[in-house]
Write a structure and sequence with these properties.
Length: 89
């Protein structure tokens, strides 16, 4: 019996969902992102008026860390440049 890595299991589950809902393939990238956001909100529980307390706490901790260590962050442009370099080579 082959044991799959977590990333492979995730990909397998996504493939199974896509097979069961073929309409997903016809969605535009923007529609897929919106759907992912809706699914995420549903999965973590909560909404704008009643956010998930553990998620709020995690975000607060990350923001505090960012404020204390701004030198450890990257701009969006820097992140894009790193991604482009990885893809190029």
């Amino acid at each position: 019996m082959e044991i799959l890595a977590p990333s492979a299991l995730c990909a397998l589950r996504l493939a199974m969902i896509a097979e069961n809902i073929p309409q997903l393939r016809s969605l535009s990238p923007d529609q897929k992102i919106l759907l992912a956001a809706e699914l995420w909100r549903d999965a973590v529980g909560g909404d704008a008026e009643n956010p998930n307390p553990s998620l709020v706490q995690a975000l607060r901790e990350r923001l505090d860390y960012y404020r204390e260590h701004p030198q450890e962050t990257s701009t969006w442009e820097e992140v894009r440049a790193r991604i482009a370099l990885r893809k190029a080579g």
